[in-house]
Design the sequence.
């Protein structure tokens, strides 16, 4: 991810590969993944199958990890992660930071190589799309999303299934599906981490949405300030076209769909859906008067579905596990989980995903590890 890249993770990757080659060690693979979420401890290196994890690794540590751990099976004690109270932790899931989380939108982030479509497939990738196209009607897909209770994660909290049904019912010879990835809020990097760590989950969800509303063309509007995300999205789109998962007659059905990326030029206002549509059309990004709403007259004045990255990231899990499973998580009125970017004066800065209804106290103290130097809590700003 972006954070660890700035802390020299590409150099760590390069060093590991060079040292393994120099020592002629052939039974070890080095795999790059997306963000694990624990930014304050990055870059992180996990040695499988033992699942021992090292934190705050530098390029200079690579040789010691290979010579001690890989060649002799000794753990490099000094690189083991220390929790806030000083406890040494050998495995990732032993950390309180992860124990209280429930990762659905982030399920593959930090687990798979985001640039390898086969790894996504190995983790149930495209099963939900195949199920939708071959076993479910368009109404059944929308019904499942509605029953799950999923609401828009971009801030407005509008029921996702209801929005999808509006676009399906709208009349038009051409419909579009759009992803809002113009995450402009200071300190927010929820969408960025999903795009960098699991781009296929977004593309698969957009294809499912397109099938259910009757669209054949999609656009992802993403900030140009997210170069790693943009690069990985394009790699993912190219791989899916090559595998026939984007394009004509997907999975041998009569459903066809393709996606293009559009870059934003740093205008905060383009996070608003109608300003975003203006920008995709090549005009100056400024909000349109509503009504008409995008569901009836959106991109190029055609019926358009717009959801943000995190909303889409829940879709495949809902179709695979069922709406009852998803709606059992969270509270009576807010189902599922929410991803938060935890920044500022907390010990464990990073990205967390928790069930709706989790308190700020739990996020700040149990997951965030409290305030540095045991200072008093003063204020939290939610955005």
Sequence:
């Amino acid at each position: 991810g972006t954070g660890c890249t700035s802390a020299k993770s590409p150099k760590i990757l390069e060093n590991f590969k060079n040292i393994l080659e120099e020592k002629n060690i052939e039974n070890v693979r080095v795999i790059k993944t997306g963000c694990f979420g624990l930014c304050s401890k990055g870059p992180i290196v996990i040695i499988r199958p033992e699942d021992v994890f090292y934190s705050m690794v530098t390029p200079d540590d690579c040789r010691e990890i290979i010579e001690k751990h890989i060649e002799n099976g000794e753990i490099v004690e000094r690189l083991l992660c220390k929790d806030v109270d000083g406890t040494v932790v050998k495995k990732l899931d032993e950390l309180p930071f992860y124990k209280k989380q429930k990762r659905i939108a982030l399920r593959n982030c930090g687990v798979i190589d985001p640039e390898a479509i086969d790894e996504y497939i190995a983790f149930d990738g495209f099963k939900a799309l195949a199920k939708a196209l071959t076993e479910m009607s368009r109404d059944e897909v929308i019904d499942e999303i509605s029953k799950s209770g999923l609401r828009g994660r971009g801030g407005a909290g509008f029921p996702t299934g209801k929005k999808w049904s509006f676009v399906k019912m709208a009349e038009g010879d051409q419909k579009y599906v759009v992803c809002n990835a113009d995450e402009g809020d200071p300190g927010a990097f929820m969408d960025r981490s999903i795009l960098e760590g699991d781009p296929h989950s977004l593309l698969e969800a957009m294809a499912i949405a397109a099938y259910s509303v009757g669209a054949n063309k999609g656009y992802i509007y993403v900030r140009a300030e997210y170069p790693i995300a943009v690069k990985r999205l394009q790699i993912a789109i190219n791989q899916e076209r090559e595998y026939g998962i984007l394009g004509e007659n997907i999975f041998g059905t009569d459903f066809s769909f393709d996606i293009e990326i559009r870059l934003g030029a740093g205008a905060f206002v383009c996070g608003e859906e109608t300003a975003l549509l203006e920008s995709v059309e090549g005009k100056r990004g400024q909000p349109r008067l509503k009504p008409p709403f995008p569901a009836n007259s959106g991109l190029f004045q055609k019926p358009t579905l717009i959801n943000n990255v995190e909303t889409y990231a829940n879709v495949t899990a809902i179709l695979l596990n069922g709406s009852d499973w998803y709606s059992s998580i969270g509270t009576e009125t807010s189902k599922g989980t929410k991803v938060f970017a935890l920044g500022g004066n907390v010990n464990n800065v990073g990205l967390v995903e928790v069930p709706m209804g989790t308190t700020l106290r739990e996020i700040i103290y149990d997951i965030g590890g409290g305030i540095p130097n045991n200072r008093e809590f003063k204020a939290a700003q939610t955005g």
Summary: The CA atoms of residues 43 and 56 lie 5 Å apart.
